[in-house]
Amino acid sequence: MHRVYFLSQFVFCIAMFIPAQTSAADNPASPRVAPRKILFDTDPGGDDIFALLWLQSLARQGHAEIVAVTTVAGNVDGRHTFANACRTLALGGFADVEVGRGTDTAHQAADKP
Predict the structure, then answer these.
(1) What's residue 30's pLDDT?
(2) What confidence score (pLDDT) does residue 36 get?
(3) Which domain holds residue 100?
(4) Which of 19, 42, 81, 105 is deepest in the core (most CB within 10 A)?
(5) Tens-digit pLDDT profile for the chain (113 aa)?
(6) Is residue 32 part of a domain?
(7) Cα 18 to Cα 50: distance, rounded to the nearest angstrom
(8) Is 31 inside any structural domain?
(9) Gap between the Cα atoms of 95 and 90, Å rounded
(10) Is residue 91 in some structural domain?
(11) How would you write 32-45 as a 3-class SS string?
């Protein structure tokens, strides 16, 4: 349930940056809005892959520009999240997007006394 909540937060945050004008063809009198540049920080072990695919769809439609993707350990270790992000980008035709690899272990909250 927490993952669905966080994914919906991400979708909402990205949706806030999508311009209301979808294309100049829809309204020739209005100027085209430049796509928002996105740096996507993720741990694509499963659920985040769908968010990355959705982001690629937005980029293909001209609503976003994927500048880079950074990965960290989360659902799976960092080695796998990096590979998953690279494969997902390649699958969507975005193999040229830079992917940065972060920590190999998930962050653990410190025990509180």
Answers:
(1) 54
(2) 93
(3) 37-106
(4) 81
(5) 444 444 444 544 454 444 444 444 555 555 678 899 999 999 998 789 999 999 999 999 999 999 999 999 988 889 999 999 999 999 999 999 999 998 887 666 665 55
(6) no
(7) 18
(8) no
(9) 4
(10) yes
(11) CCCCEEEEEEECCC
DSSP letter at 75 equals: S
Burial 46-62 (b: 16+ CB within 10 A, else e): eebbebbeebbebbeee
Count CB atoms within 10 A of the CB of residue 42. Answer: 23
- Domains in the chain: how many in total? 1
Do residues 64 and 52 lie in contact, with contact meaning Cβ atoms separated by under 8 Å?
no
Instruction: Give the list of residues 6+ apart from residue 11 with CB closer than 8 angstroms, or none.
Output: 51, 54
Residue ranges in 62-103 assigned as alpha helix (H): 78-91
Residues in the chain: 113
- Interhelix angle 47-60/2-16, rounded to 10 degrees, is 20
Note whether residue 22 is domain-resident: no
Name residue, tokens 């799976």. Answer: 76
Instruction: Give this prediction's pTM.
Output: 0.67
Take residue 77 and report the two structure tokens written for it: 């270790």
Token pair, residue 98, equals: 């830079």
